[in-house]
Amino acid sequence: MKQVLIKYFPFALIILLLGSCIVDPDFADEPVIGYESIDNKPLYPGTPTGGDSVIFVVSYKDGDGDLGLNEQHKEEFKGQTVTVNGEEFSLELNFHIIVKKKNANGQYERIAFKDDAPFGGAFAPLKDKDDIDIKSPLEGEIRYVGLIDLILATDNEIQVGDELIFDIFIIDRARHVSNVITTDPVIVGQFD
C-alpha cells in the first residue's frame, strides 16, 4: 500500500497544482458578441411561401455574467429604454434585431414594421437561479429563432425572394450594450 501511495503521489500532486492554477477569464463587463451562423427554415411546414423561421447563433462573452431576463427583470425594466446609435430600444427585450432588406440599388435599408413591433425578444438568464446574482464571467452561444410570418403580415414589408440581413446586439441587466454584429444574407422563402 505504501508503494502505491509513493508511486502515485507525484501525479496527484501535479493534478492538484494544475487545478489550483485555473483562473476565471478576464472579460469586460460589457457583453461582446460574435456572429456564428444564420439559417432559415419554413415557418409553416408544407407551405414554403408562408414565412421563415430564422435561426441566429451568436457567441457571447460577459465579465460579470448578468445576461438574460426573467419575469421579475422584465417588470423592473417595463417602459425603460436604452439609446443605441441615436435610437431607443426597450430594456424589456435583451436580444435586439434590426432587419434590413436589399433595395433595387443593392443597398440594405432598415425595415420599419407595423406598430414598431420589434423583431427581437428576450432570452432567459444564462445562470441557474441560485447563481443569478453572483458576478462571474460567462461565455457561450445563444440560439435565437425569429419568425417572419408572410401569411399574417399585412403591410408586405417582406416578401418571398427578398434578401435580408440582420444587425444584432444584446443588453445585459446593468444596461451594458454589446457590440453590433451583422449576419450573412438570407433569401426569404429559399431553404437549404
Give the DSSP E fraction (strand runs of 2 or more residues): 35-45%
What is the CATH third-level topology name?
Immunoglobulin-like
Number of continuous helical runs = 2
Mean pLDDT: 82
* Series of H and E elements: HEEHEEEEEEEE
How does the helix and strand content classify structurally? mainly beta
CATH class: Mainly Beta
Q: Helical content, roughly?
A: 10-25%
Largest sheet: 5 strands, antiparallel
CA distance, first residue to last residue? 62 Å
Query: So, CATH architecture?
Result: Sandwich
Q: Would you identify the regions where 5 or more consecutive residues have pLDDT less than 50?
A: 16-20
Please give the number of β-strands: 10
Q: What is the subunit arrangement here?
A: single chain
Query: What's the alpha carbon Rg, rounded to whole Å?
Result: 22 Å
Which shape, going by the Cα principal axes? Answer: elongated
User: What count of structural domains?
Assistant: 1
Keywords: Signal
Signal peptide: 1-28
How would you summarize the topology of this molecule?
Layout: H1 2-20, E1 32-44, E2 47-62, H2 71-76, E3 81-84, E4 87-90, E5 95-102, E6 108-110, E7 138-149, E8 163-170, E9 181-182, E10 186-187
Antiparallel strand pairs: 1-2, 2-7, 3-4, 5-6, 5-8, 8-9, 8-10
